[in-house]
Amino acid sequence: xxxxxxxxxxxxxxxxxxxxxxxxxxxxxxxxxxxxxxxxxxxxxxxxxxxxxxxxxxxxxxxxxxxxxxxxxxxxxxxxxxxxxxxxxxxxxxxxxxxxxxxxxxxxxxxxxxxxxxxxxxxxxxxxxxxxxxxxxxxxxxxxxxxxxxxxxxxxxxxxxxxxxxxxxxxxxxxxxxxxxxxxxxxxxxxxxxxxxxxxxxxxxxxxxxxxxxxxxxxxxxxxxxxxxxxxxxxxxxxxxxxxxxxxxxxxxxxxxxxxxxxxxxxxxxxxxxxxxxxxxxxxxxxxxxxxxxxxxxxxxxxxxxxxxxxxxxxxxxxxxxxxxxxxxxxxxxxxxxxxxxxxxxxxxxxxxxxxxxxxxxxxxxxxxxxxxxxxxxxxxxxxxxxxxxxxxxxxxxxxxxxxxxxxxxxxxxxxxxxxxxxxxxxxxxxxxxxxxxxxxxxxxxxxxxxxxxxxxxxxxxxxxxxxxxxxxxxxxxxx
Length: 480
Prior knowledge:
Layout: H1 65-84, H2 91-103, H3 107-123, H4 127-144, H5 147-164, H6 167-183, H7 187-203, H8 207-224, H9 227-243, H10 247-263, H11 268-284, H12 291-311, H13 315-332, H14 338-354, H15 357-373, H16 377-395, H17 398-415, H18 418-434, H19 438-454, H20 458-479
Helix pairs in contact: 1-2, 2-3, 2-4, 3-4, 4-5, 5-6, 6-7, 6-8, 7-8, 8-9, 9-10, 10-11, 10-12, 11-12, 12-13, 13-14, 14-15, 15-16, 16-17, 17-18, 18-19, 19-20
């Protein structure tokens, strides 16, 4: 009889997933999987600290909502019985109940129950479970966008686990800290934590943790454009997933390679092929996926396929894919998410291509709101500057253009982005010059020159100095 590659329990030939550990099985998908499937990246994996290490694989992606409710009801019955009998409430039951609410994406309930579990474990001086609670609280706070709180809880868990010398769980905390710093765009810290997780997993010979840590590291390497290292990591990871018949890993493999080929501008056809293969595989096991996990897998497929079709000038197809991506993000994220901002920005650019300037501006505005709420001020400034240029070029509305451009300038000045400030002051000077408001033009050119001087851009500094001198001479001639 065949055995599950995850929990080693006996499985039937026709089972789509293991009835013991709920993991998806290859079963009838072998024919759909080509032997040369390659590896690309989706997004950093969060790491829960499971009580049973042998079940610690990727997220349990097969549990259905009704099964979760049944498990919660069973725990509630046990808790009620203990309360009636005056017996102490086990923290382990509260921890399990919290994890079930997390899977249902009911984060407020999950957090409230976790806090009760944490207090129970503290009273019992159960340090391992105290660390587990801090980790889970960190994950929830990250989901809620409270990144400082997430870092606090992860560090509390790390401190306890260091004292317990529990390296397998320390690896997971390193990954979770890497995830948070990645989200807040501290790439140096993110890289360091992922690298520590990767090296420790190699040292401990924990192959699965090595795969997971290296996959997270790849996300930073994309931004660093270290594509050769990405290829080496992904080739190794691919072998692991195929050898273990991990269909979830094979799906994310296709997504990751699709993204890689897109970012390298190497072969959009190959990127298209891998992303579509991922969607085919997701469709093949959709009956065994929660809506949440299905959407989490699909969103980036739709997003990058939309990018590809936009480059291929199939704007209708691209628009549909971006909207599907947006819908998927709104399913698996709680409230608004910064990913929405990325999709909305791409929709805005698509509408510019279609000549629908009104809708483009609407989507840029929506994207700005998202980036503002999530503290990405640089992106907010970039989009406001773009909108200012749109009003200049397409709407011929100089007043609105100046409003948006000055908003962008204020943000860049707060961020101390000297080069961007120089460019914007230069742009404002040109706008006022076209409007015939020479004194305002000179004032902005002066500010631009000062900023260029700060970054030692002598070419633009000298250019503006000549421009200012010429304007002042012209102005003096007119006065005479």
